[in-house]
Amino acid sequence: MGPFFQFLLIFAAAHNAFAKCRCTPEDDCWPSASKWNALNNTVAGRLIQNEPLAKACYPGPGYSESKCRRIAANWTDEYWIAESPIGYSYPLIDTCPPINASIPAYPSCDLGNSPVYSIDATQRQDVATGIKFGKANNIRLVIKNTGHDISLRSQGYGSLSIWLRNLRSGLQFHKVFSPSNVSCETNWNGSAISIGGGYVWQDVYDFAAKRGHVVVGGADPTVGCIGGYLQGGGHGSLSHEFGLATDQVLEYQVVLASGRTVTANSCQNADLFTALRGGGGGTYGVVVSATIKTYPTRPTLYNSLTITGLQNDSGSVLNATARMISKFPAIVEEGFAGTSLMGKVDGVWVYNAPFIKFLTDDSPGAIAHAKEVMNREIINELLPGNGTKYHVDSQWQTYRSWHEWYEAVPHTTPGANQPMMASRLFGKKSLVSRQEDLTELVHILSTSGHHLTTGSDLTGGSFMIMNIVAGGNVLENTPHTSVNPAWRKAYLLLQQVDFLVANAGSAEIKKAKDQLTTKKVAAMKELAPGMGTYVNEADSWDAEWRKDWFGDEYDWLLSIKRKYDPDDVFWCWRCVGDEGWEEVTGGTLFGPLCKVK
Ligand SMILES: Cc1cc2nc3c(=O)[nH]c(=O)nc-3n(C[C@H](O)[C@H](O)[C@H](O)COP(=O)(O)OP(=O)(O)OC[C@H]3O[C@@H](n4cnc5c(N)ncnc54)[C@H](O)[C@@H]3O)c2cc1C
Ligand SMILES: *[C@@H]1O[C@H](CO)[C@@H](O)[C@H](O)[C@H]1NC(C)=O
Ligand SMILES: *[C@@H]1O[C@H](CO)[C@@H](O)[C@H](O)[C@H]1NC(C)=O
Ligand SMILES: *[C@@H]1O[C@H](CO)[C@@H](O)[C@H](O)[C@H]1NC(C)=O
Ligand SMILES: *[C@@H]1O[C@H](CO)[C@@H](O)[C@H](O)[C@H]1NC(C)=O
Ligand SMILES: *[C@@H]1O[C@H](CO)[C@@H](O)[C@H](O)[C@H]1NC(C)=O
Ligand SMILES: *[C@@H]1O[C@H](CO)[C@@H](O)[C@H](O)[C@H]1NC(C)=O
Ligand SMILES: *[C@@H]1O[C@H](CO)[C@@H](O)[C@H](O)[C@H]1NC(C)=O
Ligand SMILES: *[C@@H]1O[C@H](CO)[C@@H](O)[C@H](O)[C@H]1NC(C)=O
């Protein structure tokens, strides 16, 4: 009997403490093969019985050394991950890593937290069919778009997944937006794009660019549009200029728990519309289309700043980073935005900031002014240490359009096994007036036993991400949104990401998580009290997640969840509606979903 099977027996015993559980393959109530076949027929043969992605690396049927090598080579490639019904960017528990099976550390390989079946949906009807099947058979349902989620929200032990990758009914450009219900008044007379399914931002950026427009989307081209990203808030290099991505949504098409498809906008199902603009993915219904605002493109000024530490550096780059953080509000107010990173690469600290300014005026005078602000606030401050404390490189370039800039510089970030994240939104005051505390914070965050060794192998690595994606229009409280109110005061979303070492045991995992939550998150909170963080990039083990991720919106969001999904057909860990259900894990990290008595 394998260790996994023993766990299952523990689960079975644990069931008794709960009033009711969703059926899993180990239960008598799991649907029969003929029921699954019938479901398969209803979805035109697009039901997939999942197998662990790296099964070919393990002895037994399907073993293939060459296939295993290919899988291992692609394991952290976000494009490859999104192509699979059970590809996940951040598999916090990896029960089938693509290792060489001759290494004895991983004797078995199983699905773990991944869904048992996935419907490869290509039309709205498939989504409704999946929802109804899950409901009728008391099966845990999960929704997967790209699988980028950090908090396991598109995974679920023993579940049926509705996979949206191939639900692609097209992108549609509206020169002038008009709501689908003509009597619904709108104050937006500009253009818009309807995103009809599981597209990623690269698709929409290209589509908009062909029409001379831009949209607010993610920094990374592989992030999905209509799922967790838009519904949880969404930031990127243009959110400073136009507001969060979710602020741009004019209308959604949503398949409800009842299987019915409805329109949600400011006058139809307005409460649902509001909940889907900040309240997070995976919980109110399945969005199958979103219409978002677009804007004419403009010339884009780019500054790439790199600070590379010396071999003997014992804190110069960290101190310089802290000093720059305190100057961020000044450059944010000048219109600069972007996501900077700091981490150790090949033994030295490196800070890199690819900042842009989306220009309203590209006259030489206006460009010179913008450069002057960046030089005065950030770059000139670094020059006295150039060559003795670190090397500073600063490059300027002007692109004719935002898209031209986007294509010219790299944006993809690799996925990684078992990352842990700490993050916090910072207001202006805590950035500009607490220089000493910021220095201490940067040192606390950068404390980690392990460091990046190369650019792509993140195992055991750690880095700090400084998202300059707020201020500006993010500070405007857009009607019919429910994002964490902390966003409306934010100038910076600071993230620290630590990656576990390969083969980390459960004691090591626990220690690293505790260190993150009790030291790093706590230090961030101390410096930015009364703020909160971004639901999509947060520490999943923060006990105060409701308050920190949703602020005072949580209770209202929960009431909307109850209204649209009274039977908890949709459930995800760390989502609104998390309460009342629990994964009975019996000593491991996943297990059946049960209603708490
Ligand atoms: C490489 C990388 C880069 C990132 N960059 C950014 C960034 O620049 N800016 C930013 O804001 N965030 C960024 N993120 C975080 C990102 O916003 C979240 O991971 C987000 O959850 C991704 O949404 P998804 O739908 O693509 O992912 P999924 O994991 O597929 O889904 C996320 C959640 O949404 C639910 N969901 C998915 N589709 C639907 C749907 N159609 N209807 C209802 N619920 C749905 C899922 O059930 C799950 O709960 C990044 C993540 C990664 C991995
Ligand atoms: C569903 O039907 C298709 C086409 O007949 C088949 O290829 C596929 O294996 C079936 N899926 C399952 C889970 O049986
Ligand atoms: C597994 O290890 C053996 C021995 O080191 C090696 O020859 C083989 O190529 C490896 N296979 C993979 C898939 O990495
Ligand atoms: C995976 O990686 C290999 C080797 O790097 C590459 O040739 C291949 O195209 C990648 N993609 C897939 C889907 O295997
Ligand atoms: C759109 O609205 C703005 C602001 O109300 C107004 O200035 C502009 O003329 C309108 N444009 C069109 C095409 O109606
Ligand atoms: C369209 O909007 C109006 C005004 O809000 C509303 O009364 C009407 O019911 C809506 N029509 C549909 C089909 O939803
Ligand atoms: C970094 O800043 C701290 C606090 O201001 C100071 O004690 C330390 O000497 C500085 N380190 C370097 C390398 O400049
Ligand atoms: C590190 O080494 C460089 C070059 O050898 C030297 O100029 C510098 O003073 C040293 N810095 C520290 C902090 O020791
Ligand atoms: C830092 O010094 C190097 C070497 O002298 C120089 O090439 C570089 O331009 C300097 N950086 C800046 C931003 O001036």
Explain what this protein looks like in three dimensions.
The chain is of the alpha+beta class and 597 residues long. It is 29% helix and 21% strand. It is built from 17 helices and 21 strands. The protein has helices at 3-14, 33-42, 65-74, 78-82, 124-136, 201-210, 228-232, 239-242, 270-275, 316-333, 364-382, 402-408, 428-432, 435-445, 506-527, 545-550, 554-564, and strands at residues 20-21, 47-49, 117-120, 141-144, 160-163, 168-174, 192-197, 213-214, 249-255, 261-264, 286-293, 295-296, 300-309, 336-345, 348-358, 390-399, 419-427, 462-468, 490-499, 581-583, 593-595. The chain has a seven-stranded antiparallel beta sheet. Strands 6-7-11-9-10 form a five-stranded antiparallel beta sheet. α10 (316-333) runs antiparallel to α11, α10 (316-333) crosses α14 and α14 packs antiparallel against α15. The structure holds flavin-adenine dinucleotide and 2-acetamido-2-deoxy-beta-D-glucopyranose (8 copies). Flavin-adenine dinucleotide is lined by residues 78, 89, 142-150, 153-154, 164, 218-220, 223-224, 226-229, 232, 234-236, 281-282, 286-287, 413, 536-537, 572. This is FAD-binding PCMH-type domain-containing protein. Belongs to the oxygen-dependent FAD-linked oxidoreductase family. Residues 111-297 form the FAD-binding PCMH-type domain. Residues 1-19 form the signal peptide.
